[in-house]
Amino acid sequence: MGDSVPVLRIENLCKTYDDGFEALKNASLEIDEGEIFALLGPNGAGKTTLINIVCGIANASAGQVAVSGYDIVTEFRKTRSLIGLVPQELTTETFESVWATVAFSRGLFGKSPDPQHLEKVLKSLSLWEKKDNTIMTLSGGMKRRVLIAKALAHEPRVLFLDEPTAGVDVELRQDMWDVVRQLRATGVTVILTTHYIEEAEQMADRIGIINHGELILVQEKSRLMRELGKKQLILYLDDPLQAIPEHLAAFDLEPGPEPNELVYSYDSQANSTGITALLNELRSAGIHFSDVKTTQSSLEEIFVDLVKRIR
């Protein structure tokens, strides 16, 4: 990927609140330019805390963060201008127009007016027709689009999306992912937190899993799916089995949801999947099947399994 300097470098980041609650524990992470990185974790895992520290909204208790090589504490103005943030909660600048709100956001970062850029952003988010409407007249989905437009107004190099599609309709969700893909094509790095695991599976290059303030895993999505995703072979038997024969005990077999289904779980990374041996054993035992199908764990199953394992 990108340059030798990662666009975001987080080293041993800790956050402990006054009441002793540890929201982050020694989190370290490097993200390259142009990546789409998904941070997955249950509520209260530390996702928003991490984003708020990088964006300068909260202070770290320990550790360092650099954006494009600039320290977020000593070079705050520089790093903040490189970052766009789409927060979870909708804001309520109710009486301003969409255009005024987005133009003001650009000015906040000291950028000179650029109506063409703002027009491009609003059009990409299907907001151009609404540019003269006041925020208070917009639906929740449209307000969410305005938050994204505000975050993009100053042309950031890193965009944080904190639970971006919580409570939005399917159409907006698709629009947003189209915008994310367009941004990535221009070299913008996108970091999103999400509960919608299928979005991470669809969109992300790499995935970080955070639980109880600890980054427990950072992995390329395809590798994560490969290494942790069990594959299953489903055999559709001609005649249902009352019980799995003893001589097949060496195989990881269990009955399927239907009486005529037999499910064999195997490691797709192993030198031998054992499928050939299993089929030979079934044949010699006179167990006939009419069809076979393979399935692979979804990211959701992998995530649930991981969090259980680490508790």
What would CATH call the architecture of the largest domain? Answer: 3-Layer(aba) Sandwich
Given as residue ranges, the uncertain stretches (5+ residues, pLDDT < 50) are none
The protein's oligomeric status is single chain
N-to-C span: 33 Å
**CATH topology call of the largest domain:** Rossmann fold
Give the helix/strand layout:
Blueprint: E1 8-16, E2 22-31, E3 36-40, H1 47-54, E4 62-67, E5 70-71, H2 76-82, E6 83-86, H3 98-108, H4 115-124, H5 140-152, E7 158-162, H6 170-185, E8 189-194, H7 197-203, E9 206-211, E10 214-220, H8 221-228, E11 231-237, E12 253-255, E13 261-266, H9 275-284, E14 289-296, H10 299-310
Parallel strand pairs: 3-8, 3-9, 6-7, 7-8
Antiparallel strand pairs: 1-2, 1-4, 4-5, 9-10, 11-13, 11-14, 12-13
Helix pairs in contact: 3-5
